[in-house]
Design brief:
Elements lengths: L6 E6 L3 H13 L3 E7 L2 H11 L3 E5 L7 H10 L5 E6 L3 H13 L3 E4 L7 H21 L47 E6 L3 H8 L11 E5 L5 H10 L5 E4 L10 E4 L5 E6 L6 E6 L11 H11 L4 E5 L8 H9 L3 E5 L11 H6 L4 E3 L1 H12 L1
Parallel strand pairs: 1-2, 1-3, 3-4, 4-5, 6-7, 6-12, 7-9, 8-9, 12-13, 13-14
Antiparallel strand pairs: 10-11
Helix pairs in contact: 1-5, 2-3, 3-4, 4-7, 8-9
């Protein structure tokens, strides 16, 4: 069972093939039940009142009323239901999905792109959808995201840990093998589920003259990371872009790892500067891009001069990389449990003693600024 009671899901899609596939998957997952189906947004809104689902799987592109418009109505009328967007791997689909996440959608999945048959496509959908449903069920405020316009932070959620201190159940802080050398010269961030909303709040709080580069791994597929970077760039004082292979890293620029690729730092030919290398290396922790992959490379070049941040997300990607960074004198920051959409990625590092400080989302930018100024 996912929870004490079944999670009720309303499937909304204008294509009968996907309505049927997702409905069948819902009925196969223990602890989840199919509340009903709807073939467009208007019907979905009518059925929310009668069927009382906990969450929708919501097609992003539909006639009459698309997924964005449905989310806006849910938010406007405080309907108390969550949403997982079902999107396509296109520029339009990715841009609309970014907007949906800003509006408070919990997460998104992709419609299968290259499946040889319906059975293979169904497996792909289930592999993506099941862990998100489980995470939503465990989340204490997943269904309220739309009522708060997707905002998460100290003003919206009671904070349990004392800012600047590790949770009481954490291990003692690990003593690094290398001492910290002073102010950080680079910032790196690992983030996943709930990330676009969290980054939308954290990054605009960083000043345009931060003075160091910021490298981010946000778990996302190709195309979507470019849309995320473009969306964030409009809101931030720092320039935000999708990273490109071979470019030298510069201060006051935020580089987001391209979806479906791995990103690491390497030395420039002069041996003095660092540049980005985008590779097709295998996934790590089932992730591509992987936080661990980036964190290890930064540890090699910025010994004692790194600020590393681990934020909301499913799974444990970033834990081993944080251990390497910590051992090499990095200053490490974790998002606290109360402000995470999913308290997965920061959990293990906190319990292993890899984090120097644990703070709510609204305080992460302050900690970053203190570490580099």
């Amino acid at each position: 069972m996912i929870g004490q009671k079944n999670l009720r899901v309303l499937v909304v899609d204008d294509t009968i093939v996907y309505r049927k596939a997702i409905s069948d998957i819902i009925e196969e997952i223990p602890g989840v039940e199919l509340a009903g189906v709807a073939h467009n947004g208007k019907i979905a809104l009518a059925k929310i009142a009668t069927l009382k689902p906990d969450i929708l799987t919501l097609d992003i592109e539909m006639p009459q009323m698309n997924g964005i418009e449905v989310l806006a109505e849910i938010q406007k009328n405080n309907l108390g239901v969550g949403a997982i967007m079902v999107s396509t791997l296109t520029d339009e689909g990715s841009n609309m999905t970014m907007r949906a996440l800003e509006l408070g959608a919990f997460d998104f999945i992709l419609k299968p792109q290259n499946s040889k048959n319906q059975l293979e496509g169904k497996r792909e959908i289930r592999a993506a959808l099941e862990p998100i449903l489980k995470a939503f069920s465990r989340s204490r405020f997943g269904s309220s995201l739309l009522q708060r316009s997707g905002r998460i932070g100290p003003s919206a959620v009671p904070i349990k840990p004392v800012p600047g201190r590790l949770p009481a159940r954490s291990a003692s802080p690990v003593k690094p093998a290398v001492a910290r050398k002073g102010k950080s010269e680079i910032v790196t961030v690992g983030i996943s589920t709930g990330g676009p909303n969290a980054l939308n709040q954290m990054l605009p709080r960083l000043p345009g003259d931060l003075g160091v580069p910021v490298l981010i791994v946000q778990h996302m597929p190709p195309v979507f990371t470019k849309s995320l970077a473009a969306s964030l760039d409009k809101k931030c004082q720092l320039h935000v872009k999708e990273a490109e292979n071979g470019e030298s890293i510069m201060p006051n620029i935020v580089y987001i790892a391209p979806g479906g690729k791995q990103m690491k730092l390497v030395a420039s030919t002069d041996g003095l500067h660092r540049k980005i290398k985008i590779t097709d290396d295998p996934p790590e922790n089932s992730c591509k891009p992987s936080v661990d992959y980036l964190f290890r490379s930064i540890a090699d070049y910025y010994v004692g001069r790194t600020t590393a941040v681990i934020m909301t997300g499913m799974g444990s990607d970033g834990t081993s990389g944080l251990g390497v960074l910590k051992d090499k004198g990095a200053y490490t920051i974790g998002q606290d449990e109360s402000s995470c959409i999913v308290y997965g990625m920061p959990k293990a590092p906190a319990e292993l003693g890899y984090l120097d400080t644990v703070v709510p989302l609204g305080k992460i930018a302050d900690e970053i600024i203190k570490s580099v100024k």
